[in-house]
Specification:
About 45% of the residues lie in helices and about 15% in strands. The protein has about 230 residues and is an alpha/beta fold. It has a single domain, classed as Alpha-Beta Barrel (TIM Barrel), CATH 3.20.20.70. Strand 3, helix 4 and strand 4 form a beta-alpha-beta unit. Helix 1 runs parallel beside helix 9. The longest helix is centred in the C-terminal third of the chain and has 15 residues. The termini are close together.
């Protein structure tokens, strides 16, 4: 079964709207919530994600609040939760001490997390990596391997690059982990293409973040239904 993961900054655009979106995600059986942990300088992300981080930080965000949100998510929903952040987020919110019962993994885009740091690390892969580095990172990877469709910032692609196809093949030489592809994926046509090219799952970020800030809940519902129809 192919899987769908959606990126959403924690409590964006506000807590009430955030949980309304999670309700829809759970209803339509989204497989993974990639929960963005806000930082002041998300330098690998484009304008959409940067602005969302700033909005969350302005509203007020700390470790206690994060823990409360994670406990509420755990109580209410069935999808997996993985944290996505930067070293700044790891340090500011002491993420390595988060109860592993509350989350299913952590990905840090500018610092490799090892099994010594946390029991469920997730790593990023793209076409620029050597086989040696790719193999080494897979040894410290659980849950799924995050394969970038192409090297670049989130939200920077007008269409999905195809660089990931070869990267998937290289990952499979060293690991049986599910491979999720992200960056540039927007609609059901993109999802179908990425599945066809060998991915086990897709991750949609910037496009989804932009949608939930401007569109109705009905539009979000229709969008998720269309994506899950591809996943079947």
């Amino acid at each position: 079964m192919k899987q769908l993961a959606l990126y959403l900054p924690c409590c964006y655009p506000n807590e009430d709207r955030f949980f309304e979106i999670l309700d829809i995600m759970d209803l339509h059986k989204v497989d993974v919530l990639e929960l963005g942990i806000p930082v002041t300088d998300p330098h690998m992300d484009g304008a959409v994600i940067k602005e969302s981080h700033q909005q969350v930080l302005v509203q007020g965000f700390d470790r206690t609040y994060l823990n409360q949100i994670l406990m509420k998510i755990k109580e209410k929903y069935t999808f997996k939760v993985v944290l996505m952040t930067y070293k700044e987020g790891v340090d500011n919110y002491d993420l390595f001490t988060i109860d592993s019962q509350l989350i299913d993994g952590i990905l840090c885009v500018d610092q490799e997390i090892t099994l010594e740091d946390y029991p469920m690390p997730i790593q990023l892969y793209n076409e620029t990596m050597s086989d040696q580095l790719l193999e080494e990172q897979l040894k410290n990877n659980r849950v799924f391997a995050y394969c970038m469709s192409g090297a670049g910032k989130t939200g920077s692609f007008n269409q999905v690059p195809t660089n990931y196809i070869e990267t998937i093949e290289r990952i499979r030489k060293y690991s049986n982990l599910p491979i999720f592809v992200g960056f540039g994926i927007k609609d059901e046509q993109d999802v179908a293409s990425v599945y066809y090219n060998g991915a086990d799952g897709v991750i949609i970020g910037s496009f989804f973040v932009k949608m939930i800030a401007s569109e109705s809940l009905e539009t979000v519902t229709s969008y998720l239904k269309s994506l899950k129809n591809v996943s079947l």
